[in-house]
Design a protein that fits this description.
- This protein is an alpha/beta fold and 191 residues long.
- Helix content is 35%, strand content 24%.
- It has one domain: Cytidine Deaminase, domain 2 (3-Layer(aba) Sandwich).
- β4, α5 and β5 form a beta-alpha-beta unit.
- The radius of gyration is 19 Å and the shape is globular.
Length: 191
């Protein structure tokens, strides 16, 4: 791998950040699971307003190219034509692509790294483990494109620096809250 300047890395990282509601994230995972049927990879593009960073729409690969889910992903140019039409008509842009892997391995394969879905500096490629069965975004691989077929992979603990999932509490947060309330109110006794 060729050395990449800090300025390129910083620029790519700055362009990469986006936000997604927890509900949309859960819906995305459920749909990736359904489309992959626990036996093949599936994927989608995440779209935000041209001037924004909040994911407003998810467009699934196989809605753009009905024959692309072949075990792996074989996305054709006709799929991109339809994607660009959607983006233009709705004033949206692609902020990331997401696809699943069959195991917990969320690094890019050689095919992933040498065939970016969007060859644009700052583009994010997310890999969801276990055909979409991730408990949190921190389990996913997040890779930022630097250009010239070079990527940086974010360590699992740093994923939220680029991908912000916001909104209602997660199940773990809700469980923690209820456990805390039980401890507090369980200690209280009537006078």
């Amino acid at each position: 791998m060729t050395a990449v300047s800090n300025a390129v890395v910083n620029d790519a990282h700055e362009q990469a950040s986006f936000k997604m509601s927890r509900r949309r994230w859960r819906d995305l995972l459920g749909e990736l699971q359904r489309r992959g049927d626990d036996r093949r990879e599936s994927g989608a593009f995440l779209l935000a307003a041209n001037t924004g960073d909040h994911v407003e729409r998810v467009v699934y690969y196989d809605d753009l190219d009905a024959r692309c889910l072949t075990g792996g992903i074989s996305f054709s140019t006709t799929g991109f034509t339809e994607l660009w039409r959607i983006c233009e008509e709705q004033a949206l842009r692609v902020v990331a692509d997401v696809h699943t892997h069959p195991s917990t391995w969320v690094q890019q394969s050689e095919i992933d790294a040498s065939n970016p879905m969007m060859a644009r500096v700052g583009h994010v490629a997310m890999i969801v483990p276990s055909y979409g069965h991730a408990r949190s975004v921190e389990e996913c691989g997040v890779h930022i494109y630097l250009g010239s077929y070079q990527w940086i992979a974010l360590p699992a603990g740093n994923v939220s620096a680029v991908v912000e999932i916001y909104g209602l509490f997660s199940r773990a947060q809700t469980r923690h809250f209820w456990n805390m309330l039980t401890r507090v109110f369980g200690r209280m006794t009537p006078s």
